Amino acid sequence: MNISDVSARSGLPAKTIRYYEDIGLVRPARGENGYRDFSDRDAHKLAFLARSRSLGFSIEECRTLLALYEDRERASADVKRVAEAHLVEIDRKVAELQAMRETLTTLVHRCHGDDRPDCPILTDLAGT
Amino acid sequence: MNISDVSARSGLPAKTIRYYEDIGLVRPARGENGYRDFSDRDAHKLAFLARSRSLGFSIEECRTLLALYEDRERASADVKRVAEAHLVEIDRKVAELQAMRETLTTLVHRCHGDDRPDCPILTDLAGT
DNA sequence: TATAAGGTTTCCAGTCGCTGGAAGGTCAAG
DNA sequence: CTTGACCTTCCAGCGACTGGAAACCTTATA
């Protein structure tokens, strides 16, 4: 398979796939013409990566997950640990965003939003 | 004021303040020794920036907000527009994270997390 | 007055995860 | 034989810092 084929299958841009090769996540074979020649297994890996990334795992976490995926002797506990750590991180981010959201919502409600210069949002940002 | 003073006042690292000068958000005066010499107004601006950044506004949004803050003829509607756009973005991010969270939570619950290789998380990532 | 400690300066490089673009090689169709 | 679509590599840039090196300046103490 050429790169555009695996790109279509995985949903990842060709550029991203080349980047993933650069950082050692996939190692496709090469044809005589120098083109990358992806196996079904490579395509599978890329789909795995696309899905993992879409769940917010970092590249390094994806590398770990991929290694676990390829290791038939893995303990499911190892996978679970990675996922749970990621969940904690997601919760942290959500909480952070919710806090911003709350503050901003209040400020926006207080602002007239007309052509007068008076603005509680700016007043808040200026900090008294 | 030296940079460590405004750093302490604003809560921003000195490095960040230098960076903000680089990109033109503040323009502190310089003493004879070449040291930056921050006025109260500079310190105020930096506090404004710190607060804006902590609410998740991008640097460019901060630049806009700062310009509005300094413009006595501003219309509060302009400020409100920026804040509302940012709120929309926050909501988008929260929704994205919540979706990840939901999927991951389900997967984590389904995983035994013992020393056996069998793992629904990996099965999901592999996509059937 | 010498010196040491600590603050400040600039500049360059790295982070993360791509993404865009240039310059060139290859392939399939007409 | 040409066109156009694909592929290759390499280099640069995004956002918002952060770390570190080398050199200069200031302040406190011996």
TrEMBL record, chains A, B:
Pfam families: MerR, MerR-DNA-bind. Keywords: Cytoplasm, DNA-binding, Transcription, Transcription regulation. Its main location: cytoplasm. One of its GO terms (biological process) is positive regulation of DNA-templated transcription. Coiled coil: none annotated. Residues 1-68 form the HTH merR-type domain. It is found in: Cytoplasm. The keyword Cytoplasm applies. SMART domains: HTH_MERR (SM00422). One of its GO terms (molecular function) is copper ion binding. The keyword DNA-binding applies. InterPro entries: CueR, DNA-bd_dom_put_sf, MerR-type_HTH_dom, MerR_fam, Tscrpt_reg_MerR_DNA-bd. Transmembrane segments: none annotated. One of its GO terms (cellular component) is cytoplasm. NCBIfam families: CueR. This is Cu(I)-responsive transcriptional regulator. It comes from Albimonas pacifica. The lineage of its organism: Bacteria, Pseudomonadati, Pseudomonadota, Alphaproteobacteria, Rhodobacterales.
